[in-house]
Write a structure and sequence with these properties.
The protein is an all-beta fold. It has no helices and 5 strands. 0% of the residues lie in helices and 33% in strands.
Amino acid sequence: MESPSPDYILDIAGLPSPTADKERTLHGRPWLAVKWRCCSTYSRVYRNRRGDAYEGRCPKCGAPVKATIGEGGTNSRFFEAG
């Protein structure tokens, strides 16, 4: 028995793949994952408004971290700080 031909065509070629942009959040802001050694916790650190660094603080003790963006950097998304 032959399967019936569909009465519609779904074109998904223009949709981005789920892994197309791993650095985006639901809010569209790039982030880095940070394991805070000082308090044994994890959090996200978001890119600043100028777009030249990722800046944040430990969610428990408030220790600051800043990772500048520039040539010769890394593609890594996970770091340890504090």
